[in-house]
Design a protein that fits this description.
Layout: E1 10-14, H1 19-30, E2 34-39, H2 44-52, E3 57-61, E4 81-84, H3 99-127, E5 131-136, H4 149-169, E6 174-181, H5 190-193, H6 196-205, H7 215-225, E7 236-239
Parallel strand pairs: 1-2, 1-4, 2-3, 4-5, 5-6, 6-7
């Protein structure tokens, strides 16, 4: 038996229309999973890539601006994998940061993540089924960053909740772990990559010498969703080109 195979599993990947979510969805499909791509925007491109590779995928429109959007999503649906990737970011100096930008980010990145995990775990336990949860954290789960106060708070929270849920659910058959991506070429980092000074400073700190690609995260997600990671609980794995080791 291949311990990395996801054959027979059904996964929900949030924010799967582009970037990290798209790459993770494709990685899970290649490992054998059926993947439901959840996002507030169209996932047609992701589904086309899944189909090209001969995989099985479908689309679910959902907006995590409503933190309880997934409360009824899992009942009877047969999911055994949940990847919480959906997230947003707002940038401004802390002195100028607004309450709206604080609440919007916390609602999507932290509150929605927790209640989506809760709904998934309740259904898995009710069915007596094992489950895998992978949350997308950040380097800013460990560091402070600048000009992104609500994002930093939310990602510190993701790391903490990942550990808390692992403590409560590990003995009940649910693995809860997180991935902390480094500086990856996605829409969230576009502003940084377009700033020559910031981009240069970031690259000089990365031992690998390059920005990460969404595909760099997919393999770690497959691992954490597989039986190869059966005894991994509450981990926050940084996939960052060596940034935190520097």
């Amino acid at each position: 038996m291949n311990p990395f195979s996801l054959q027979g599993h059904k996964a929900l990947v949030t924010g799967a229309n582009t970037g990290l979510g798209q790459a993770i969805a494709l990685g899970l499909v290649r490992a054998g999973a059926e993947v439901v791509c959840a996002a507030r925007r169209d996932c047609a491109q992701t589904l086309a890539l899944i189909a090209e590779g001969g995989g099985t995928g479908s689309e679910l429109r959902i907006d995590f601006a409503d933190p309880m959007a997934a409360r009824d999503l899992f009942a009877g649906a047969g999911y055994s994998i949940l990847v919480n990737n959906a997230g947003i970011i707002r940038r401004a100096d802390s002195l100028d940061f607004t309450e709206a930008d604080w609440d919007d980010v916390i609602d999507v990145n932290l509150k929605a993540l927790f209640f989506t995990c809760q709904a998934f775990a309740r259904e898995a336990m009710a069915q007596g089924r094992a489950g895998k949860i992978v949350n997308i954290a950040s380097l800013l789960s460990f560091q402070g960053g600048i000009r992104v106060p609500s994002y930093t708070a939310s990602k510190h929270g993701v790391a903490g909740l990942t550990k808390l849920m692992a403590n409560e659910w590990a003995a009940r058959g649910i693995n809860v772990n997180a991935i902390a991506p480094g500086y990856i070429e996605t829409s969230n980092t576009e502003a940084l990559r377009n700033d020559p000074d910031r981009s240069r400073a970031i690259l000089e700190r990365i031992p690998a010498g390059r920005w990460g690609r969404p595909e760099d995260i997919a393999g770690t997600a497959v691992y954490l969703c597989s039986e190869a990671a059966a005894y991994v609980h509450g981990a926050v794995l940084n996939v960052d080109g060596g940034w935190l080791a520097r």
